[in-house]
Design a protein that fits this description.
The protein has 15 helices and five strands. It has a five-stranded mixed β-sheet, sandwiched between helices. It is α/β, with parallel strands linked by helices and about 325 residues long. The termini are far apart. The longest helix is centred in the C-terminal third of the chain and has 16 residues, at about 320-335.
Length: about 325
């Protein structure tokens, strides 16, 4: 498989300029730089500085070549050439849309004549202009830098194959058994601090627990989860399903502290824990992304949780999650005795 083309770096351009001054042939320069000679010929042709007023200034200058290259990349970006389109993309990124959703939606809206592919949006987000606006923090994965998919470190040691959601028992998948939970974090605007809200949903009853975290560190999160749910009888806390976020890497403490099994979604597949994802959308009615959590009283969070658990659900035969959860807990009492 051929290696992907990589543009010349500034250091390579400096070496090229020095070798040119020494009157070394292009083929030899290419050999020393580990490049194809066509790459060197193309570099000299594109970035050779011409100055009609000062002919003595003509030549290949590494800093000038780097600036010319950067300028071409900037002008070639469709988003930078069309400010209105760029503003629309940034607005939707801040609303939580993924680049694929933005690109797909633009194809349906008659007001936008220009179209994009999601790869163009990703490149813009990780460009100098996108990084200056910190656009990467609005992406689902929130990576600071973009890496090749093949270069990313595997998390198989943190999230082992045996704990994949595909190995989860069918009784859990079918919601036929009580005591299986799904958990996720709700993230809020960065300028309001690192505080977030954890959402934990029992799959069968849809009973929901909400609690606030001061940051996204994994050990405090798991410790708080153990403190809240460990008092339940063992049949009421049999397993937890998470995504592969770094905030859940301390899942082994959960298994040791509560004897509960941990399951994990596939990479970039949060929809596999649909119960908690659906509940997050319900919670967003009361806690939008611009909520200042530090100014939110604990009783307000408890009130939201009680309201959700007291709302009748069609999937429960119009019973409330609190009613179903209480009934299932009563059924656990003979076992625990």
């Amino acid at each position: 498989m051929p290696c992907p083309f990589v543009h010349l770096s500034l250091e390579e351009r400096r070496q090229l300029a020095r070798l040119r001054e020494q009157k070394i042939a292009v083929a030899e320069i290419a050999r020393r730089l580990g490049r194809h000679r066509s790459t060197i010929y193309r570099e000299l042709k594109r970035n050779w500085w011409h100055d009609a007023e000062v002919p003595q200034a003509e030549g290949y200058w590494p800093m000038t070549a780097q600036q010319l290259t950067d300028g071409r990349r900037r002008s070639s970006c469709k988003l930078l050439r069309h400010p209105q389109l760029c503003a629309a993309v940034i607005e939707r990124l801040k609303d939580g849309w993924s680049p694929e959703q933005i690109a797909g939606r633009l194809k349906l809206e008659p007001g936008h004549v220009l179209q994009l592919c999601h790869e163009t949006i990703y490149r813009f987000v990780y460009s100098k202009d996108g990084q200056s606006q910190e656009l990467a923090r609005y992406l689902p994965e929130r990576r600071r830098t973009r890496k090749s998919r093949h270069a990313r470190k595997p998390r198989s040691l943190v999230f082992p194959e045996t704990s994949r959601i595909h190995h989860r028992p069918e009784a859990v998948n079918a919601r036929a058994e009580f005591g299986h939970w799904e958990a996720d974090l709700m993230i809020f605007r960065k300028e309001h601090g690192p505080a977030n809200v954890a959402t934990v949903v029992e799959r069968k009853s849809r009973f929901t627990v909400l609690f606030r975290n001061n940051d996204r560190r994994s050990k405090p999160l798991m410790g708080r989860l153990i403190d809240l749910l460990a008092p339940l009888p063992q049949p009421a806390r049999q397993s937890f399903t998470f995504d592969r976020g770094l905030e859940f890497v301390s899942w082994r403490e959960l298994e040791a502290g509560m004897g509960a099994k941990a399951w994990f979604c596939d990479p970039q597949a949060p929809w596999q824990k649909g119960s908690v994802e659906n509940m997050n959308r319900r919670v967003r009615r009361y806690l939008p992304a611009d909520t200042i959590l530090l100014a939110l009283a604990d009783r307000s969070l408890r009130s939201i949780c009680e309201r959700l658990n007291a709302t009748p659900r069609k999937c429960l035969g119009w019973r409330t999650p609190a009613e179903v959860f209480r009934q299932e807990l009563l059924a656990c009492e003979p076992w625990s005795g």
